[in-house]
Prior knowledge:
Layout: E1 8-13, E2 22-27, E3 32-36, E4 68-73, E5 78-85, E6 87-88, E7 91-92, E8 101-104, E9 116-121, E10 142-147, E11 151-162, H1 164-174, E12 182-192, E13 195-206
Parallel strand pairs: 1-7, 5-8, 9-12
Antiparallel strand pairs: 1-2, 2-3, 4-5, 4-10, 6-7, 8-9, 10-11, 11-13, 12-13
Amino acid sequence: MTAGLVVVSVVLLLAVSGLAGLLVVRLTDRDPQVAIDAAAPASVPGTTQELDQRTDPRPTVDPARGRPLRIEVPSLGIDAQVVAVGLEDDVLVPPSDPTLVGWWRDGAVAGVARGTTLLAGHTYSAGDGVFDDLGLLEQGDRFTVTTTRGRIPYRVEAVRGYTKDQLAEVAERLFSQTVVGQAVLTTCTDYRAGGYHANIVVVAHPTRQQLTDP
Length: 214
């Protein structure tokens, strides 16, 4: 979906068994607006690197651009299948299988010149979620996304835990479909009092030299 075509609210359910935080994505006539629909804690554990927003005026398309099929994060021991997820009554829900990662098919595919490839995974209180350890990633860590055309290596640029207010401040650029192509991984964090109250967000960019024109 190209930003600007519709106005719709999407609720991204990021955990299972009723222990979920809600990431609300509102697609406006510009870029997605995002906020966590949960009580914001005073602070969220985790790293706090500033987001790296590239401004290259001539971004290029990765030759392996395509629909994400798999994600491998060696430092976390993640090797997971990626499946497309869409809207069900205005709700975007990651796969019911907590070992799978959901790719928002109305966002960007991996390897695009501009746009955000959103990959959401479960955090599960029993420790069975694919993105349970997402917050342990650090700037400079690497992961790979396999697409329908090949493999795209990524370098982590930022790892942050966002409360509702914090995420609202950076939402427009974090989930933008006009920035130089990036991948955003997200899951719930800060479990307390029977629910999740914040989200871990990882921003990454492709690492190899891109070869083709947009």
